[in-house]
Write a structure and sequence with these properties.
Layout (H helix, E strand, L loop, with lengths): L1 H39 L6 H15 L2 H6 L17 H34 L2 E2 L5 E2 H5 L1 H18 L4 H8 L4
Antiparallel strand pairs: 1-2
């Protein structure tokens, strides 16, 4: 199980790095576009399409699993963290498996959509002809890794919260 967790961590960290680099690229492109428009009246021709089609979906999905692993998402807790008796492990698993079902559906549907766009050669026409399938492919990629993380955490003997608390120096 430790080998699987190490592999999952490497994948999550790599995708998170990609998402972070996408954020840097968005900031650089938008600032370059602003400055070039301001000083030279010449926009960065590819900025809008590149940001909208490729970088924003990457920002939204590639870091999902890593941020979940780190406990970084906003959450509304409406139940105590631990419940007495046999109910606790059941609720703990359900809190991971129900979102896993949702992200399995998102992965499946977005994967079908991306594959269809790749096979049909769907293109966004602009200053450059942008192949849309590869732009769409980051969504099932990011969601599938989150799905793997949710399933791993649901069936791992040490719950995510305990691993996160222990790694942050908690009790």
């Amino acid at each position: 199980m430790k080998l699987l967790e190490k592999l999952l961590i490497k994948i999550e960290d790599t995708l998170h790095l990609g998402g972070c680099l996408g954020l840097v690229a968005v900031a650089a492109l938008i600032n370059a576009d602003i400055l070039l428009r301001l000083f030279f009246n010449r926009p960065v021709q590819i900025q809008f399409e590149l940001t909208e089609l490729y970088l924003m979906p990457a920002l939204a999905t590639l870091s999902l699993s890593r941020v979940f692993r780190d406990g970084g998402h906003l959450a509304l807790d409406f139940m105590p963290q631990h419940l007495p008796g046999a109910l606790d492990p059941i609720v703990t698993k359900l809190r991971l498996l129900l979102p896993a079902v949702f992200f399995a559906a998102v992965t499946w549907m977005s994967g079908k959509f991306a594959l269809k766009a790749i096979l049909h050669g769907d293109v966004e026409y602009g200053a450059i002809d942008w192949p849309l399938g590869w732009a769409y492919a980051v969504i099932p990629l990011g969601c599938s890794v989150l799905l793997l993380r949710l399933l791993y955490d649901a069936f791992n003997s040490e719950p995510l919260l305990e691993r996160t608390t222990n790694s942050m120096g908690g009790e």
